[in-house]
């Protein structure tokens, strides 16, 4: 069998897998719908939100936590430094909603290289209730936020979480980030969960406190550089499963630059590479660029139109992706096709660089994760 044959086989297989994942996500993820009711005898819930710095929608996302349709919950904000510019905003919101029990904890615990986890430790330990949600500051909570997390809890559940759904993009590069977050990453995470490979996502995580406390508490999440990767492994080791909410919660983006999108996505790629390398390896084929190139090679060998084949492959990749975004109410525009293509072109160098890059950053905090390959490069004087 020739190389052209295998190229054609790869193109076909990758396209079929892509279509199946889109179909699974279309079934699994619910579109816009009415809020969930609270139900009878809802348990009290603690919501721990690490905060750091001001973003475009900080007031909107933090305010959403005070406006939940849930009868009994507390909000615990955690910030590493009293001088952080987010502190006055948190204090203003706490004063504006005196009926909602809330507190601001200043000062972190240095238990790992992960500054977000360090920021959450004291908040977790201060939580008064048996159900605890760890929620990033840039999550826009719908009014039925707690109900939707609780609705996905099953007898075999160890953790319920939500991927972020990019929303409110301002500009081309923010739309590129939406293309990464929504129809690529969220889609694959829901497809994986449907196949029994649920992965935690640190944006919103609902824990039953005793499950984590029985296995070392929140400090056990320092076992990995990414707390959600550690959570995934901890839950699986306990014989339980990670489940997702019925639809991702929004993360408003605002403006983005090309550099911001690149470094944010590279950071996440790097963390996936370090924590789940076998699952990360196939990500190079998650975009349409390699299947289109393989299809072109096969077409040239078979005497078919190369341009026609590439366009056909693109149609089967981007057409259903566009439909999925439309069905789920995710941001789309006239340039969405271009953002899909740009995203897929970025995947290739990002995937390659993720295998050797060791420096990543979260909210101005430097984090270093090294592998044997990276250490070997460093030993030879090669900067990575």
UniProtKB/TrEMBL annotation:
It is a multi-pass membrane protein. The keyword Transmembrane applies. GO terms for molecular function: ceramide glucosyltransferase activity. Pathway: Sphingolipid metabolism; Lipid metabolism; sphingolipid metabolism. GO terms for cellular component: membrane. Keywords: Glycosyltransferase, Membrane, Transferase, Transmembrane, Transmembrane helix. Coiled coil: none annotated. Pfam families: Glyco_transf_21. InterPro entries: Ceramide_glucosylTrfase, Nucleotide-diphossugar_trans. It is found in: Membrane. The chain crosses the membrane at residues 6-27, 274-298, 304-325, 337-358. GO terms for biological process: glucosylceramide biosynthetic process. PANTHER family: CERAMIDE GLUCOSYLTRANSFERASE (PTHR12726). This is Glycosyltransferase. It comes from Enterovirga aerilata.
